[in-house]
Amino acid sequence: MQKTFFILIFSLLSQFIFSFVQNDEAAPDFQLLDSNGDEIVLSSFRGKRVVLEWTNHGCPFVAKHYKSGNMQSTQDFVKDKNTVWLSIISSAPGTQGYISPKKANELTASRNAFPSHVLFDPSGVVGRKYSAKTTPHMYIIDEQGLLKYQGAIDDAGGRGFMSKDLLKANNYVKKGLKELASGEEVSSPVTKPYGCSVKYSS
Amino acid sequence: MGIKFKLEKDWHTYWKNPGDAGEGATIKWNLSPGLSASSILWPGPERIPVVPLMTFGYNDEVVLLTRITSTEKIRFPLKLEAEVTWFTCKDICIPQEGVVDVEIEEGEFLASTHNTELKNYMSMVPTTFTGNLRVEELDNKFFVQSVSPGDEQYSNVYFFPYEYGLTSYTKDQIYEKNQNSFTLEIEASEFSLDLGMFEGIIETSTPEGKKFYSISYPLKTDKSESNTNVFLLIIFAFVGGLILNIMPCVFPILSIKILRFVEHSENSSANTLRYGLFYTLGAVLSFLLIALLLVILKSSGENIGWGFQLQYPLVISILFYLFVALGFMFMSNLVFGSSLGNLGSFAQVKNESLESFLTGVLAVVVASPCTAPFMGSAIGFALLQPSLNSFVIFFSLGIGFALPYLILSIKPSLLSFLPKPGAWMETFKQFMAFPMWASALWLLWVLSGQVDKDTVLLVLIGGLIISLSLWLLEKNTSKKLGIKWLVRLLVITLIVGSISILPTEYSVKESRAERPGYSEALLNEYRDSNQLVFLNFTADWCITCKVNEKVALNSQEVISVIEKKNIKYLEADWTRKDADIARKLEEYGRTGVPLYLLFPSVGDPIILPEILTKDILLDYLNELT
User: Fold this and answer.
1) DSSP per-residue string spanning B195-221
2) Which end of chain A is more exposed for a tag (fewer CB within 10 A), N or C?
């Protein structure tokens, strides 16, 4: 009873505060609309691995990952591997990256990207639940719904990012998924996310 | 050389650690031959919050400096060119790049506005902090403490980390200014990356403006400590394994087995050696299997949140019970699972190599009724060790267990030297109770440092009840099944009861309540009788006081020196500002806490530093006369 009470209070509070989710804990569930108008529930993917990608097409960091084909190659890597790719936009209305479903689908097509779904989180509730700080900010969730990785997509962060060759960088998401697939623990489960700030409503 | 970034109003660019988002600038210099450039000298940054995030950078304008040095005589005109990349951000970010160059002619030095600007920014580049600084990590918080260097009085101090994964960017840092020192409380990062070093810069505010200092302090990593005793544990495990062989229920079986193999091998030494090796393999693998089970148990335990650390009073008390019980089991005839002994006969298989292997396995199982106490202690210690050590310990135990047999299989003639099984084995088994109880005593001593004496007594009573329960079990030979189960139920209730009374919290600090509070009269009374007095002015809201108490005052060594030298300890608690205490503080020119006074038997008190370490405090206490 007491526990339920605390969970209730905590989940209420987490709507307002920036909470932190630790690895090996249950990834917070969410329900968001995708670019085709469907309700997507995270827990319905139990039994599959899930990759979360926080995105904002106007952010130069994100733009570079798509222009270089690095993000698409990572998406391609998870294809046919019992893995779902969810791109999440937490930009608040009126801020950079806040787009219509139609525009989102156009972007996906024009960039030759293949996320399983592009999700909209204009209130920032889901982003804050995951303490998503940057675009891109990546998370891997395992088949049991436990968070296994959070951080950068690769080690290309740091000064001079715009002139780096992303296809030569060490891709943490691919590495983490490979390790999970072979039954190992993720060797670098937390890395420093880099990029633009997520454009939350303040 | 300085490169100036002039941004539009409300736009910013980043420091070398940008905080939660963004990226700092890069500068690539193309220089005339003979010149070389340092890395960027970053002026101290500002906090630029982007709710709910925090970034570190420069608003409106910044000059990033580079030291250009020449190894030879400079040839004019000098050509300097820099390729620069940077981010300019407001609510959105724009990556930018550009090339700037300058040509310098030979001539007289002329002071210009640029020169003042350079000097200004140069004064914002951090220098190494010269004050006596330390960093303590307690309860997911860092406490940066320092004696203020020189006469500087900082109205505020803020820490900027160099790396991600050390301190929280968003949470407020609490600055506490004392008479001539300060303490800065910083929340640790939500994701600790175990950097090993506390590195970054501190921004200090004085009436004259802000200054930046770089600090670097090694953090304690308590991970390497457990390796020191592994070698000793291996030896103990090996000896333990040897001793297992002469336990009453192992030795007779083994003798018979050995004889059997000697007969079967028809005096071919190659065969006996092979059987010996297979036996060893069987025994060692069984022990490793036990280790594996333990490691699985341990890691699943850690997953659900209980760690097996020796520091916890609960773990120590349970181990105390365990060793009391183990001693009792050695002393009495109490055996668990004696029916397992019959399994030995299953090991008679046609293939003799396989039979020796199974004998090895079964020797471990068969022996369990009287090895349980031994295994119990090995398991107890292995649980406290890292997983790899558990395997090593059990491997060593297995080798020790199998070695006598292996030697005998190589040289069967040694068999005649073995003592005959007999009553001496029972005597030896009973003797083994004493090392167990000695271990129990040691655990109790450890516990007495963590909880108050009433709790220690409670744990001792629990030990008594455990012994009583085991005695009941031993005497429980009633033929009537009902009575037998009734007694067993009672025993279980008693054991569960005695575990439930165990302490889960540290309670040694409650003994502070026994320390008398400060009063002028009491102090005078002690002084008049020429007693040594330690007067501690503290308050619950004083961070420096709390850190000093945790790190120095409450340490076991300090407490024992205070007791040994019969120093009277007085605590003046200023949590609720008290006029008497305020007057006393004023006497020593203080307006606040902490203040530590050491009164020698005669003469004026010694004022201790505001920031105490165990060593400093012990030095003062030991010299006090």
Assistant:
1) -SEEEEEEEEEETTEEEEEEEEEEPP-
2) N
